From TrEMBL:
GO molecular function: pyridoxal phosphate binding; transaminase activity
Keywords of this entry: Aminotransferase, Pyridoxal phosphate, Transferase
Domain of life: Eukaryota
Every Aminotransferase class I/classII large domain range: 2-91
Name of this protein: Aminotransferase class I/classII large domain-containing protein
Keyword Transferase (UniProt): yes
Cofactor: pyridoxal 5'-phosphate
Entry-linked InterPro entries: Aminotransferase_I/II_large (IPR004839), DapL/ALD1 (IPR019942), PyrdxlP-dep_Trfase (IPR015424), PyrdxlP-dep_Trfase_small (IPR015422)
């Protein structure tokens, strides 16, 4: 079990580092494999659609978790390492 937890924490670190390197505020990822990324002044659904359509990466619109989630997307660290790295690469290409 410890190896599994370690694996997903490493995936989380990749996601956090990716968005932070692009100047985004990120939350979570310490005790759960989910990272919340803030897009101030933007609709969470618009950001979700932009990432899906332009980077072909699936996130979750924050507003689906209630009004406080508006302006955020949630990114999951559950996935194969190669897929997480590819998603990070695509996100960097989109927001550089």
């Amino acid at each position: 079990m410890d190896e599994t937890i370690k694996f997903y924490k490493e995936n989380t670190d990749i996601i956090v580092d990716t968005f932070k390197s692009l100047g985004f505020d990120v939350y979570g990822g310490r005790n759960a494999p989910y990272v919340w990324v803030h897009f101030p002044g933007r609709s969470s659904w618009d950001v979700f659609a932009e990432i899906l359509e332009k980077a072909h990466v699936v996130t979750t619109p924050g507003s689906g978790f209630g009004p406080a989630g508006e302006g955020f997307v949630r990114v999951s660290a559950f996935g194969h390492r190669a897929n997480i790295k590819e998603a990070a690469k695509r996100i960097k290409q989109l927001y550089r």
